[in-house]
Amino acid sequence: MRFDLISIFPKYFDALGLSLMGKAVDSGHVDIGIHDLRDWTTDRHRTVDDTPYGGGAGMVMRADVWGRAIDAVLRAEGRRVLAIPTPSGRVLTQQRVRSLIDADQIVFACGRYEGIDARVAEHYGQTDIEVFEYSIGDYVLNGGEAAALVLVEAVARLRDGFMSNPESLVEESFEGNVLEYPAYTRPPVWESLRVPEVLTGGNHAEIAIWRRQRALERTARRRPDLIPTIEPGTLSTLDREVLAAHGWVAGADSKWKRVTIRPARIDEAAALSELAATTFPDACPPEVGPEAQAEHIAQNLNERAVRQWIESDNHRVLVADIEGSLMAYTMIVLYADGEYPDDVPEKHIAPAPTYVSKCYTSADYRGSGLSGAIFEAALVDAVPHSHGTQFVLGTNRANRRARDFYRRHGFKKSGRRVFWVGDVRNEDVVMIRPISEIANA
Ligand code: ADE
Fold first, then answer.
1. Coil, strand or helix: which one is 96?
2. HEC-encoded secondary structure of 49-76
3. Which of 135, 149, 151 to mutate to test the pocket of ligand 1 (most atoms within 8 A of CB)?
4. How far, in Å, is the centroid of ligand 1 from the Cα of 377?
5. Atom number, ligand 1, closest to the C-alpha of residue 86
6. How far is the CA of 143 from the centre of ligand 1 (A)?
7. For 105-114, what is the mean pLDDT?
8. Coil, strand or helix: which one is 152?
9. pTM for the predicted model, two decimal places
10. pLDDT tens by residue, 301-330
11. Between residues 114 and 326, which one has the greater pLDDT?
């Protein structure tokens, strides 16, 4: 690949002789030509600019001088690109950089002053040369040279033979439109800051998960504009849970939406009762028929019952609000010492359980990570209000999906219970998780 850089300050490009770039030039992986624009002037003063037509401040660089310079350095064939750095170009992205990796020649026209006469880009745009006007960010530099260095380095490092360790290209920021995870090296403690324990534990699967979570978290916090560019289908369940916990979900329509997970408000009792009624049947096994379901919903999930949960001091109710609609909820009951849920045999659990009574998500958001995010949020929310040492829940024995979900969230089976829906007897498993796991995290 050949880069030709034309500027009135050719010495600016001395930096290209350094570091990996210098090595790539020495080894012949890239070939660089640096040219002084003034070599194509025709007057005694070597003039490259003139006053703008129509008036205004500053000077504009002349099309005729640029035309002679560009024609002189352009090769006769191959994929040729004329790159023009300008603050009014489209902003450079890793994707746009990647679009240039198989060019045979990139000629850079580095303007100064108020820029280059617009006819230069227009003229070459009418030929078989690709014109690539780009900005390196929403700020103004004195000229295009720094921006040219940026693009030369960004393109060259993607070419075979440039990096000694091409694997580092795979994980870095912007590949997959996700920022890079934070990196650490020795010493293990610096300024009382300790390297995250998981990185020194040697469990590679755990490390990969931890890094992926941090990368997604960073992206959601620092570059929320990147989230809508991520294809939801490329994400794992865990990835989706992390993004949902940071305010982003893609439902059945695969469109990214903002989600807020927060305590339910009293004025939401009717909406929440409706969500509870529509989601309850999804979790019922086939032997719980429509009548038993309807009876359970009418008795336990009516608006009055839901209002009581929200008002009560020993219940915690969280909802997931997506653009003003409730799409998931959790309900936790905080038992005091000596109290137990009616339907959980005391022998399976420690005193004063924090009982996860409900965790339901609208079918539109199944698999979106929303359930995992609201469930974890509910556990964190309940910790300071808990009286005992255990989270406890019961789930239908046949509901594999639910059991796998709770297992992934740190719950282990501790026994069985019977759960009545209407007059249908259900065999449930009781699962527990130590509260200390959340409190110490
Ligand atoms: N020339 C001056 N400012 C610039 C910017 N932000 N990007 C590219 N070229 C420039």
1. helix
2. EECCCCCCCCCEECHHHHHHHHHHHCCC
3. 135
4. 44
5. 9
6. 6
7. 94
8. helix
9. 0.88
10. 999 999 999 999 999 999 999 999 999 999
11. 326
* Ligand 1 pocket, residue 87 CB under 6 Å: yes
Pocket test for ligand 1, best of 86, 112, 116, 142 (most atoms within 8 A of CB): 86
pLDDT band at 20 (very low <50, low <70, confident <90, very high): confident
32 lines ligand 1 (CB under 6 A): no
Q: How confident is the model at residue 174 (pLDDT cuts 50, 70, 90)?
A: low
Residue of minimum CA distance from atom 4 in ligand 1: 87
Does residue 138's CB lie within 6 angstroms of at least one atom of ligand 1?
Answer: no
Least reliable range by pLDDT among 140-154, 159-173, 290-304, 383-397:
159-173
The whole-number average pLDDT for the span 140-144 is: 96
Query: Residue 90's closest CA among 45, 135, 54, 46?
Result: 135
Kindly state the tokens that stand for 217.
Answer: 């978290």
How far is residue 281's CA from residue 367's CA, in Å, rounded to a whole number? Answer: 17
Exposed e or buried b for every residue in 6-24, given b needs 16+ CB within 10 A? bbbebebbeebeeeebeeb
Output 344 or 225, whichever has higher pLDDT.
225
Q: Ligand 1 test: best mutation among 140, 145, 149, most atoms within 8 Å of CB?
A: 140
Atom of ligand 1 at shortest distance to CA of 142?
A: 2
Is the CB of residue 232 below 6 angstroms from any atom belonging to ligand 1?
Answer: no
**Nearest CA among 111, 120, 108 for reference residue 141:** 111
CA nearest to 368, candidates 248, 278, 268 = 248
